[in-house]
Amino acid sequence: MLVLLAFIIVFHITSAALLFIATLDNAWWVGEGFYADVWKICINSTNCTEISDAFLDYSTMQAVQATMILSTILCCIAFLIFLLQLFRLKQGERFVLTSIIQLLSCLSVVIAASIYTDRRQELHSQNQNFYALTSEGTYGYSFILAWVAFAFTFISGLMYLILRKRK
């Protein structure tokens, strides 16, 4: 049981780390000489422009930013509640509250990644003088980490739902 508990804790911490990296790092859309994320766009690592309300579809990027932050916060809250429930639940009870919060984190990250996937073309091609260089690129590792974090938080949420407190 101790090995299972250690695996669950490491798996959850890994999920949270993936969410932090995906939210904060500048590699959602990358190409030759530029990289972009949900916060800013940099060309040649020197010319960085923050995404602000000057962009036509700023509300969409705000939705991506908000849901990624929400997923990270919910994942951390789920971990803290798991630790509290670990010592407070009676034997045989399930970690339902932890599971619900972790599945909400999963839902938030899939919403953010889906919005970014759907709107990427419009988000990176509206300002012709700045985004002309960024139209040819690929999804970066932070974007991929967001999808991996989705899978991890989903699996973690299901584990908590199935898991019963045993001796």
Automatic annotation (TrEMBL):
Would I find Membrane among this entry's keywords?
yes
* Pfam families hit by this protein: PMP22_Claudin
What InterPro entries does UniProt report for this protein, alphabetically?
EMP-2 (IPR003933), PMP-22/EMP/MP20-like (IPR050579), PMP22/EMP/MP20/Claudin (IPR004031), PMP22_EMP_MP20 (IPR004032)
The entry's localization annotation reads:
Apical cell membrane; Cytoplasm, Perinuclear region; Golgi apparatus membrane; Membrane raft
Its main subcellular localisation, reduced to a broad class, is membrane
Note the PROSITE patterns from the entry.
Answer: PMP22_1 (PS01221), PMP22_2 (PS01222)
Report the function annotation for this chain: Functions as a key regulator of cell membrane composition by regulating proteins surface expression. Also, plays a role in regulation of processes including cell migration, cell proliferation, cell contraction and cell adhesion.
Share what the entry says about its subunit structure, partners included.
Interacts with PTK2; regulates PTK2 activation and localization. Interacts with ITGB3; regulates the levels of the heterodimer ITGA5-ITGB3 integrin surface expression. Interacts with P2RX7 (via C-terminus). Interacts with ITGB1; the interaction may be direct or indirect and ITGB1 has a heterodimer form.
* Protein's UniProt name: Epithelial membrane protein 2
